[in-house]
Specification:
Order of helices and strands of chain B: EHEHEEEEHEEEEEH
Structural class of chain B: alpha+beta
Structural class of chain A: mainly alpha
Number of domains of chain B: 1
CATH superfamily of chain B: Brix domain
Radius of gyration of chain A: 23 Å
Number of helices of chain A: 4
CATH class of chain B: Alpha Beta
CATH topology of chain B: Rossmann fold
Number of domains of chain A: 1
Number of helices of chain B: 4
Radius of gyration of chain B: 21 Å
Order of helices and strands of chain A: HHEHH
Number of strands of chain A: 1
Helix content of chain B: 10-25%
Number of strands of chain B: 11
Oligomer: heterodimer
CATH architecture of chain B: 3-Layer(aba) Sandwich
């Protein structure tokens, strides 16, 4: 008396999806600097359960996108790099970063000890 | 002679504001994830928890009161399952997604850091362009996660990148810091590298509705199994094992 998996109704209304997308679409003449969106020309095709390669694929995507964004920003004369004398509040506080550093130090110390 | 230059052809602007709120019953981890998003997206307006899970039609009104044209609504169920609604208000569409594998910025594994309120790049992989629902989600996420230049708290530089990747028909989110100089040889040639900042999460799209938090379903994911069903299946398997041993 295995429970028969209920066949779910699949809905994929292409016409409606496209129409909706067109109603919300941003003006295509909008300069790139307004959205800062980049598309990676490749697909991520790795084994989902292979953590290392999966994260590597994400890293590659991000790196490629960041580099193309950098060249785009030069083209648009858009300030990209933060000058080294520009300081402002960061997302993670100093005390948080200190805790991360401490943890890293502890880890390396632990590895050394076990060697 | 005052009006010598006619107002220069009106510069088009990307105007987006996002209302961020949750339902009652979210756990600490979900709350931290929301804090992370709030800190990363300077055009987000946080609101207090929504009282009722059955009155989602209040949300477009609430967004309107806050001058927001997008809404991110986190819905917690049974104190363990988290769903994310991403919607354009007031006219839709809205996407309901299941959130899994949450790692917040507070965890100490990720060493990256970025300016608070700097505008992040948003990167999509090309798989989004293959399906019609993918294109719609990409457009929607462009509005919600792309920080407009006019955001009040936005900083003028770019130092992090949000990536969305489609893998295993799920949307994987990562956030990296962009480092343009090699810290080991600061005078060497600029070589870009990345360090992860966090948070991490995986979104499984469940349904796309035509309106904002209501309306006809235009897409439903046939592969989605609700987390409660998964758990009950696991429990049943365990029970079967016991019964088998007992007999």
């Amino acid at each position: 008396e295995d429970a028969v998996p209920k066949q779910k109704l699949e809905i994929d209304n292409q016409v409606a999806l496209e129409r909706i997308r067109q109603t919300i679409q941003l003006d295509p003449s909008l300069p790139w600097t307004e959205t800062l969106v980049v598309t990676y020309p490749q697909k991520i095709e790795v084994d989902v359960n292979d953590d290392l390669n999966r994260e590597l694929a994400f890293y590659k995507q991000a790196l490629h996108s960041a580099q193309s964004a950098h060249s785009l920003s030069i083209k648009h004369k858009f300030p990209f790099t933060r000058p080294s004398d520009y300081f402002a509040e960061m997302v993670k506080s100093d005390s948080h970063m200190e805790r991360i550093r401490q943890r890293l130090l502890n880890e390396t110390a632990g590895i050394k000890k076990s060697e | 002679d005052v009006d010598q230059d006619p107002p220069a052809a009106k510069r088009l602007k990307n105007k987006q504001r996002v209302l961020l709120l949750s339902s009652r019953g979210i756990t600490h981890r979900m709350r931290h994830l929301m804090n992370d998003l709030e800190v990363l997206l300077p055009h987000v307006k946080r609101d207090s928890k929504l009282d009722s899970k059955n009155h989602l039609h209040l949300l477009p009104e609430l967004a309107d009161l806050n001058n927001c044209n997008n809404t991110l609504y986190f819905e917690a169920r049974r104190h363990e399952d988290l769903y994310l609604w991403a919607a354009k208000t007031p006219n839709g569409p809205s996407v309901k997604m299941h959130v899994q594998n949450v790692h917040t910025m507070d965890e100490l594994k990720m060493t990256g850091n970025c300016l608070k309120g700097s505008r992040g790049l948003v990167s999509f992989d090309s798989a989004f362009d293959d399906t019609e629902w993918g294109r719609l989600v990409k457009e929607l996420f462009t509005h919600i996660f792309g920080v407009p230049a006019t955001a009040r708290k936005a900083k003028p530089f770019v130092d992090h990148i949000l990536t969305f990747s489609l893998l295993d028909s799920k949307i994987w989110f990562r956030n990296f810091q962009i480092i343009e100089k090699d810290p080991l040889q600061p005078s060497g040639p600029p070589q870009m590298s990345l360090v992860e900042i966090g948070p991490r999460f995986v979104l499984t799209p469940i349904r796309i509705f035509e309106g904002a938090f209501h309306g006809a379903t235009v897409y439903s994911n046939p592969e989605f199994i609700s987390p409660a069903a998964v758990r009950s299946l696991q429990r049943r398997e365990k029970g079967d094992k016991y019964n088998y041993r007992k007999d």
